[in-house]
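User: We ran a pulldown and think these components assemble together. Before we commit to crystallization trials, I'd like a predicted model of the whole complex to look at. Sequences follow.
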Amino acid sequence: MALIVQKYGGSSLADVDCINHVAEKVVTARKQGHQVAVVVSAMHGETDRLMTLAKSIQEQPSPREYATLLSTGEQVSIALLCMAINNKGYEARSFTGGQARILTDSRYKKARILDIDADALEKELAAGRIPVIAGFQGKDVNGDITTLGRGGSDTTGVAIAAALKADECQIYTDVDGVYTADPRVVPQARRLNKVTFEEMLELASLGAKVLQTRAVEFAGKYEVPLRVLSTFAEGDGTLITFEENNAMEQPMVSGIAFNRSEAKLTILGVPDKPGVASSIIGPVSAANIDVDMIVQNVAADEKTDFTFTVHRDDYHKAMEILGHISNELGARVVLGDNKIAKLSLVGVGMRSHAGIASTMFKTLGKEGINIQMITTSEIKVSVVVDEKYLELGVRALHSAFGLDAEPSEEFDPQLSRV
Amino acid sequence: MALIVQKYGGSSLADVDCINHVAEKVVTARKQGHQVAVVVSAMHGETDRLMTLAKSIQEQPSPREYATLLSTGEQVSIALLCMAINNKGYEARSFTGGQARILTDSRYKKARILDIDADALEKELAAGRIPVIAGFQGKDVNGDITTLGRGGSDTTGVAIAAALKADECQIYTDVDGVYTADPRVVPQARRLNKVTFEEMLELASLGAKVLQTRAVEFAGKYEVPLRVLSTFAEGDGTLITFEENNAMEQPMVSGIAFNRSEAKLTILGVPDKPGVASSIIGPVSAANIDVDMIVQNVAADEKTDFTFTVHRDDYHKAMEILGHISNELGARVVLGDNKIAKLSLVGVGMRSHAGIASTMFKTLGKEGINIQMITTSEIKVSVVVDEKYLELGVRALHSAFGLDAEPSEEFDPQLSRV
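Assistant: Here's a predicted model for the assembly, 836 residues in total across the polymer chains.
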């Protein structure tokens, strides 16, 4: 018997049939002898409906009222799912964020969880009942309703699992696990039985969005075993672990992530002197623009070239700021490009293997794909290329690193579902 | 400067335009220098939507989950109305029932208010803010969400007014006051500037439904001056008072109430002995059927006839029970009629005037309307007639008691809005 926290997203709760299906999955886990606590999002479309209502009244609503409004979406879900579980002969009881004693700070729209008093939930489980908890919400010290920011239901699931010291936190979604690459781009992509938290963080933040980055960080911090799996398809999903065991036997590259949501800005011929990097990036950050990759070329003639990427939405604003900076610094010219794509190899195995980067560059070169920028970290190599080469590049790399084939050990019994 | 509690029902909050209109009314009262607290129902249609969702999952949902589900309707309203008020430059803050510290018992679907700790709301008012409170809901000692039963938002309004010691509780609805009779039946019906609580109770419980009976009782108990007025039309509405001043100058009959929601059951030839009434009504009550009028005729030949009315929905069930009773008691025959109407004259003035009943009977007789049952109380005379005479009877009585004419004193400055 294990203690499992199951989290179901909005697409798993799209309508009454879906809710009954989720209830069936919850009851199945109970029938297998497990204790189960459930965390749910709002029904699909409900949060958007409420946001539209708010927006039609006030452009910038009070964050406190906005949180009070949006939190009703999950409150509807917990009540309906409890009814559906009760209807199958098992006893379920609903908990709003506040009732589950999820204490947060007072940033109403982007609150962070400070503490969870798990007493009430533990009593439910001990009594043989199934607590169903509203994701995405909590309350602050004043008893005000707060929300964790969009997608925060994953974080609630992990936090509840941590508070209950659950054996596993299962995140049910509309994909059946973490893949070596987005299957819409690479048809040969295959599901990973297991990834490390670090790989998951890189894959999640690089566009292979299965889980909210914050939820993964949270799981890592509290060492909550996390499993991503599909609500609608059978299967064991992908287990996310902290262990790096068998690193030598694992493939060096676990997956390939990509995104096309960035834009590139370059300033050429900047005087190469101390402090120049901060005089370029400083004003950009001050304008609340997040900078992702930063590359500075080796200096020649006491001049240097400086390139960085920002989110595509911030491109025009960043170009304007860079224009001012260029004048101040006496730079030669400012260049911009918002038709780029970023490709990344991710894998813990890279740490102990040289040659990954050179294989990557050779593969792209063979396809005639020019590399515009390169950055590396311990478990990742990222390159920026022309947007039009995104699909070609991802598929070529997927083949080159042997990700197309099924791994020899297809099913690891240790990884089977709890 | 007065402290006013305003309560707005679902039809006043049908859509975004309505919500903005309500915000305008709230702000107007503030501009007149008053302190204002607001109580709201769910947006029109929302409670039905949620009830349908629940019913599509489980026929008899857990009352606890049902209350959690339905309470979201009012929670949406408080957030949206706060946004609309904020948008007009006034500061409003929302309170769920729990946040407003409305403590109830644990009968989740029909909870009764035990206590309201008004500290938080008083602080809001003292700070110049407008608290907007979810009607129809509270929390029990365990922190569980409860609902007061359908229409309970009126009760919340009165209870909040009592807790805040408000100068007036204004119930905004889609009618502009209490009328001498339902204007849809009696076109000459006129709005009463003022009625007593007792008259209001009779009028409300007899189908002239403007206010929830429980809310009126609550207002009487805590001596909260209550005013019924329209959200959409200007006017002073109807003030509901406890004073019976000027009773001599007031018309004897304040209004005429009626309903066609009852059915009549008669058992003929019952042995006339002690305990026979309870052996008839007892089993009916035990089946959770509410009995309204009861009439027992004078006994002849040691036999008596016994007639009572029940809600029309309970008619067939009650007839079946009465069949069994009839066999046990050796009664002659059981008769039933679910095509009846009940007409009632209501007025505090009746207490000091004889002849009201005889005028009533003469008026109905002149129209050829046969009276099937009669009951009287201190401020009411009710008769049961064939349903087809309802409209004719009400109009004839309305004329006969001088209710068609405008009263000589059309506007009493004492009754003008605070």
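Residues 63-87 of chain B form the longest helix (25 residues). That may be worth checking against your pulldown data before setting up trials.

User: Thanks, that helps.
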